[in-house]
Each structure stands twice: as structure tokens, then as C-alpha cells.
């Protein structure tokens, strides 16, 4: 079945695939996950804050992001970010934004909506008595959140946050629509250059599978260890 | 900010000559909905089958179910799309491969099959969770009544499990609907692709994407409304 296929093309392009493609994918995933969790936590706190305006803005933002396809959001920000940048810096015409920064902003803002739903569940999983006790000790809202609620919420939700990060890792392949050179983009460029679509796409699938499968295996093991304290 | 807003653009003729820009977006909407519904049929039945297999006492069925779910969950949807579209016709026997390549509307059929198999792995997980959340006594009671395994699932376990998992299944349906936009990479002219080509033809980026955004939000609201009606109509009276 594979007799007339040339898997040598895969070995020849390994430095390009991993040196550029995978580095891009992993950097984007790590930065977007980190910033997304921070923004998501802030959104979750805003949503649970009970401050009328803030609460609704956070809710509308999260619901809107969750009802749009990621591809559309990628296109939105690709065109919108230069205008926002111009508005913020006071420039008269849209500023130049690098492809990586554009993708990073997109994924951070998009994933923040999903992370915020996880963190909201995490914050709500901490019994009300603990916040009450913290306030009774004279702690401020910030102190209560930072020293009592959030550390536990993070710990309880760590498996879910990591699973969502694996989803994010898979989703970053969609920067293909902007012709960026992430792992899949690199594979696809080699595939089209050498006319070797079958070999390159099969190899990409195997690599993604290996990474995601082992990552989710580790998350499941972690889940069993974290689950004890509940 | 010197962006030229022009909301009248929707009523101007598109360069494709088949109608206005609004018609173009609406045809994209129709393709999005058609793809979502067709792939959901595959996803629902295949996913239910795989989900049931993972709860059967048979070790073999379990292994097949687990392998299926792990395989389809751990490869990005976009890569799967390429595998179905570019790779499958090449690895099949030549005559079949050629037949696939000459298929009219190939992006649509490929998109439907790909999304169906992809979403099936997610549906399978929901179905399995639903069945496992039922008290063990229900399965035992079915056996005690003399039901075969098939009858136990058909009359006892599945009717209960589906009612429990209706809310997560709704969100899987919505995910499936949103995922149809990934099929634009293989040339399906669905809503996001249409908004993108409207932007390329007319340079009215934000009008095109705003319209697509509003349409997506509207479909989401309609689906959520229909799901809550469905939930009410299938609810078992007196439960909860």
C-alpha cells in the first residue's frame, strides 16, 4: 500500500519541522495558556464579583467567545488588532502587528473564555465558609482571593486546566488559515514543495497523537494524585 | 481610526454574479447548517455505538472503543480534515481513490464524514459517562427481568442515559456546528469562508465578520432554545 511513498522526505525535513514548526507551536501554546489562565481567572472573579456592570461585561464576553468558531475569531483579530493598536498608540493608520503576536493575542483572548469557565467552577468549589472565615479575620478581598481561595481553586482545577491546554495545543494548528509556520504549517509547506502530502500529513498526525496522548496520560495520573485532598 | 464603514454593502451585488453579498453569506449559513446536521447524524449513531461498547462487559469491545476515542481525540481536527481529504484517496486502491477525487461537492462530503467521526469520539465519552452515572441496580434489574444485553440497553439504560446527558450533548452539538468552519481549509464554502471571501472582494472586513458573528450567535440561541424544549418534552413526569 505504501510502496510508492517516500518517507525519506520526512527525515530530510525534521530540523525544519521541529526547529521552526514545533518551537512555534509550543511557544504559542505555553504563552497563550499562561496568559489565558491569568485573564480567565480575572474574568471568573469579575463574573462572581456581583458588581453589576463588571459581572455582565464578563458574562457577555465569555458567552460570545464560546459561541463563535475559533477560525472566525482568528480572522477577526487578524484584522482587528492593527486597528486597536492604532487606537491605543494614537497612530493615524493601522499599525503593523507581527503574525506571532497576532496569533498570541487571539489565542489568549479566545482561550481566556474557556479558562474562565473552569476557574469559575474552581472558585465556586471552595466552601463559602472559607471566604467568610477570611473576612472574619479582617482580610481584604484581594488577600482572601490570593491567599485562600485561588491556591485551592488552582489545585482542584489543575487537571482540567491542563486538559484545556492540550486542546489549545491542538487548536493552534488552526493558524494554518493565516499561513503561519507552526508544526502543521511547516509540514504542509514541505508537503506542497515536494508533492508529498500523504507522507507529511501522516507524520504530522502521528506526532500530534504521540504528544497529546502522552500528555493526557500524564494529566490522568496527576488527576488521581490531586483528587485525594477533596 | 480611518476605516470606512459601509453597512449598505450587504445589498450590493457580489462579483460572483449570483446575488448580493447578503445572499452570499446566507448561502454560507445554509452550508454550515447542512454540514452540522449531516455530521451530527454520523456522530450521534457512531458515538452512541462506541460509548456503549466502552460500557460492555466484553474486553474486546472495550479496547476497540477506547482505541477509537483516543485516536480521534488526540489528533487536531484540522489534521484529520487533511487526512480525509488529501491522504485517504491516495492510500485507497486506485479506482476508489479516483472515484473519491471526482466526487462532486467533495469538500462537503469529506467535511461531513470527518466531523462525524471526530465528534463521535466526544459523543461516545458523553454516552459512556451517562451510562456509568446510572445506578448499578438498573443493569442488574434488567438482567433479572430476563432481558438480553441488547434489550437492557434499549429499554433500560439508554433511555435514562440520554435524558441525563442532554445538556452536555447540546454543547457537543454546538461544538460540532462551530467546527464546521474548519472545513473551509478543504474548500467548503460555509459561513466563515463566505465572510472571508466577502472581505476579500469588498474590503469591508468588519461588516462581513460582524454579520457572520451575529449569524453564529443566532444559531447558537436557536439551538439552545430547541434543546430546552426537547429536554422539557422528554422529561420523565415526576422525576426530580
Textual characterization of the structure:
- The complex is a heterodimer of chains A (230) and B (240).
- Chain A is mostly helical and 230 residues long.
- Helices cover 80% and strands 0% of the residues of chain A.
- Chain A has 9 helices and no strands.
- The radius of gyration of chain A is 21 Å and the shape is flat.
- The mean pLDDT of chain A is 90.
- Chain B is mostly helical and 240 residues long.
- Helices cover 75% and strands 0% of the residues of chain B.
- Chain B is built from 10 helices and no strands.
- Chain B has helices at residues 21-53, 59-73, 77-91, 94-102, 106-132, 136-144, 149-164, 166-179, 191-202, 205-234.
- In chain B, α3 (77-91) crosses α5 (106-132), α6 runs antiparallel to α7 and α9 runs antiparallel to α10.
- The longest helix of chain B has 33 residues, at 21-53.
- The mean pLDDT of chain B is 91.
- The chains are: A mainly alpha (230), B mainly alpha (240).
- The A-B interface holds A 1-2, 64, 67-72, 75-76, 79-80, 83, 86-87, 92-93, 170-171, 173-174, 176-177, 184, 188, 197-198, 201-202, 204-205, 208-209, 212-213, 216 and B 1-3, 70-71, 73-80, 82-83, 86-87, 90-91, 174, 178-182, 184-185, 192, 195-196, 199, 205-206, 209, 212-213, 216-217, 220.
Poorly predicted runs of 5 or more residues of chain A: none
Principal-axis shape of chain B: globular
Q: What Rg of chain A is obtained from the alpha carbons, in whole angstroms?
A: 21 Å
Oligomeric state as shown: heterodimer
User: Could you give the order of the helices and strands of chain A?
Assistant: HHHHHHHHH
The overall pLDDT average of chain B reads 91
Key structural traits:
heterodimer, A: 230 residues, mainly alpha, flat, B: 240 residues, 10 helices, 0% strand
In a few lines, what is going on in this structure?
The complex is a heterodimer of chains A (230) and B (240). Chain A is mostly helical.
Amino acid at each position: 500500500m505504501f510502496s510508492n511513498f517516500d518517507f525519506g522526505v520526512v527525515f530530510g525535513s525534521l530540523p525544519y519541522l521541529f526547529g521552526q514548526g514545533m518551537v512555534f507551536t509550543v511557544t504559542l501554546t505555553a504563552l497563550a495558556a499562561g496568559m489565558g489562565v491569568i485573564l480567565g481567572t480575572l474574568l471568573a472573579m469579575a463574573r462572581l464579583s456581583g458588581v453589576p456592570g463588571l459581572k455582565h461585561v464578563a458574562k457577555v464576553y465569555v458567552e460570545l467567545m464560546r459561541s463563535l468558531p475559533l477560525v472566525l475569531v482568528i480572522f477577526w483579530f487578524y484584522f482587528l488588532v492593527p486597528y486597536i493598536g492604532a487606537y491605543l498608540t494614537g497612530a493615524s493608520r493601522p499599525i503593523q502587528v507581527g503574525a506571532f503576536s497576532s496569533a498570541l493575542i487571539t489565542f489568549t483572548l479566545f482561550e481566556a473564555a474557556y479558562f474562565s469557565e473552569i476557574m469559575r467552577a474552581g472558585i465556586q468549589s471552595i466552601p463559602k465558609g472559607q471566604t467568610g472565615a477570611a473576612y472574619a479575620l479582617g482580610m481584604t478581598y484581594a488577600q482572601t482571593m490570593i491567599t485562600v481561595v485561588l491556591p485551592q481553586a488552582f489545585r482542584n482545577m489543575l487537571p482540567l486546566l491542563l486538559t484545556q491546554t492540550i486542546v489549545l495545543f491542538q487548536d493552534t494548528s488552526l493558524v494554518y488559515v493565516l499561513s503561519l509556520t507552526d508544526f502543521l504549517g511547516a509540514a504542509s509547506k514541505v508537503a506542497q514543495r515536494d508533492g508529498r502530502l500523504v507522507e507529511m500529513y501522516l507524520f504530522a498526525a502521528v506526532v500530534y497523537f504521540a504528544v497529546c496522548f502522552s500528555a493526557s496520560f500524564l494529566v490522568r495520573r496527576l488527576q488521581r494524585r490531586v483528587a485525594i485532598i477533596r | 481610526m480611518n476605516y470606512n464603514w459601509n453597512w449598505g454593502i450587504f445589498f450590493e451585488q457580489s462579483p460572483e454574479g449570483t446575488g448580493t453579498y447578503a445572499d452570499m453569506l446566507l448561502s454560507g449559513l445554509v452550508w454550515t447548517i447542512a454540514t452540522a446536521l449531516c455530521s451530527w447524524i454520523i456522530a450521534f449513531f457512531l458515538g452512541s455505538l462506541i460509548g456503549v461498547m466502552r460500557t460492555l462487559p466484553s474486553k474486546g469491545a472495550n479496547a476497540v472503543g477506547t482505541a477509537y476515542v483516543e485516536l480521534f481525540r488526540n489528533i487536531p481536527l484540522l489534521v484529520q480534515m487533511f487526512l480525509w481529504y488529501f491522504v485517504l484517496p491516495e492510500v485507497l486502491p486506485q479506482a476508489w481513490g479516483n472515484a473519491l477525487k471526482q466526487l462532486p461537492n467533495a469538500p462537503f462530503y469529506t467535511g461531513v464524514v470527518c466531523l462525524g467521526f471526530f465528534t463521535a469520539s466526544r459523543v461516545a465519552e458523553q454516552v459512556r459517562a451517562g451510562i456509568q452515572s446510572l445506578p448499578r441496580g438498573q443493569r442488574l434489574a434488567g438482567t433479572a427481568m430476563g432481558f438480553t444485553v441488547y434489550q437492557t440497553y434499549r429499554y433500560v439504560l439508554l433511555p435514562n442515559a440520554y435524558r441525563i446527558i442532554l445538556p452536555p450533548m447540546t454543547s457537543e452539538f454546538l461544538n460540532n456546528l462551530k467546527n464546521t468552519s474548519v472545513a473551509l481549509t478543504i474548500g467548503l464554502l460555509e459561513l466563515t469562508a463566505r465572510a472571508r471571501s466577502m472581505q476579500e472582494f469588498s474590503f469591508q472586513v468588519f461588516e462581513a465578520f460582524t454579520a457572520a458573528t451575529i449569524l453564529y450567535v443566532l444559531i447558537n440561541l436557536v439551538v439552545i432554545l430547541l434543546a430546552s424544549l426537547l429536554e422539557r418534552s422528554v422529561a420523565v413526569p415526576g422525576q426530580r
